[in-house]
Amino acid sequence: MSAAAKVVPSGRLIWLTAAVGLPLAVVAALSPGARVIAIVCGAVLLAAVAADAMLRDRALRGLRVELPELVRFFKDRDGEVRVRVQNESGRSRRVRVGIGAPEGIESDSEEQTVDLPAGAASEFPWRIVARRRGRYKVDACYLEAKSPLGMWLVRRREAVTLEIRVYPNLRGADDLKALRRGSEGVHALRQMGRGREFEKLREYVAGDSFDEVHWKATARRGHPITKVFQVERTQEVYVIVDASRLAGRKTGEHDTGLERSLTAALVLGAAAEKRGDLFGLAAFSDRVDAFTRARNGKAHYAACRDAIYRLEARPVSPDFDEMATFLRLRLRRRALLLFLTSLDDPVLAEAFTRATRLLSRRHLVIAAALKPGAAEPLFRGEPVESDDDVYSRLAGHLAWRRLRELEAQLGRQGVRMSLVDPADLSSSLVRLYDEVKQRQLL
Q1: In whole angstroms, what is the distance from residue 285 CA to residue 339 CA?
Q2: What is the separation of C-alpha 138 from the centre of its chain, rounded to a whole number of angstroms?
Q3: DSSP 17
């Protein structure tokens, strides 16, 4: 739907007023003999201006702006939206098109002048850069053209429907390194052990272990029969992202812990796809915010992106019990559960330990805990320079020691914990996943 057209004076009208209207007014005031002629000329000029204003609807008649209904972009990467302007009138015209970028979207220029042939359409690119992940809507654009006599600029608001979806950017140096690691495939990994999945029976061969002998088949056939196992290829891998208050902490100049976690989750999904596993995704805060059951394929990967691209950190404490109960009820098959969370808060660490106690009996649970910047052993790093540095180092050492004690406590109940640097989260996550595959822990 188009709004009513509005008019503003054009440069031509301003020039005519200054070059013709003002001198006529001076002549009428100073020269009585020429006053009648000046008034008549002024009236003609005013009539022309008024008539041109009344014909303003002709300036934008037959013009229609078309935008795609949905476009997808990646954070901090250049993109463009194709804008199509349809001219259904029988004459060519020049039109200025303006599109306002929503907050979080940057554009080099919010307006562009387009020459439209008679009865035809013209296209131009609207180049933008998305600075924040999420969903944005553009519901209006603006058209401007000259009136028939060029004395007015006619402007109109045109209703459009454009949805912009901005996904995490996987083109960072760390993410590209992890993606290349993920593209190696499962055949690049040296498997340890004999595997867990039964494949077939065969004749006993010297050197076979006694625990591999199938005693019932041996009794039936009258000679030793051995069980053969194979490495299970298709397994379920879930990344569970914490989107609570601690996930909103800055881990770099522009990124938060949540941004890095979402990017790492998608990188691991690509790695799992290469290895032939099924990848699933979940996010939670004080409730379960998103859940996608483990599958594979391009359509499923796109569904995972759509499930989390609007996720924002919420100022609440994470409910680990709610997430653990949700997973226990929905996951019947043993799976690898990778929690991306922060455990430097002792209260949250205790809640995580309690919540994963039952979960770890059926599934392989790994906590990839984001390491706080100050959590380091006391005598590691640069020499101290002031008393404040001493206290800061001591606080960092105590935080590091609590995390190590938590790691040992979780290990006793079958939950693995790994402290990871947020800047290296994608590579660390793929490395943990490769270790599980290599050692057949799942």
Answers
A1: 12
A2: 18
A3: I
User: For 363-424, where are the alpha helices, taking DSSP H only?
Assistant: 387-412
Residue 9's alpha-carbon distances to 20, 110, 146, in angstroms, are 16, 22, 10
Alpha-carbon torsion (358, 359, 361, 366), positive or negative? negative
**Tens of pLDDT, residues 412-425:** 999 999 988 888 88
Question: How far is CA 435 from its chain centroid?
Answer: 28
Indicate the pairing of strand 288-295 with strand 416-420. Answer: unpaired
Q: Which residue's structure tokens are 């859940």?
A: 291
Is residue 253 within 8 A of residue 320, CB to CB? The reply is no
Most confident of 198-207, 213-222, 267-276: 267-276
Distance CA 419, CA 379 (A): 18
What is the rounded distance in angstroms from the CA atom of residue 34 to the CA atom of residue 195? 109
Residue recorded with tokens 């996010």: 283
Q: How far apart are CA 12 and CA 153, in angstroms?
A: 10
CB-CB contact of 337 with 363 (8 Å) = yes
243 near 311, Cβ under 8 Å? yes
Output the pTM of the full model. 0.77
Instruction: Output the six-digit token pair for 77.
Output: 């990467």
Spatial separation of the C-alpha atoms in residues 319 and 341, rounded to whole Å: 12
> What is the Cα–Cα distance from 364 to 367, expressed in whole angstroms?
10
Listed residue (132, 138, 133) closest to 163, CA to CA:
138
310 pLDDT exceeds 50?
A: yes
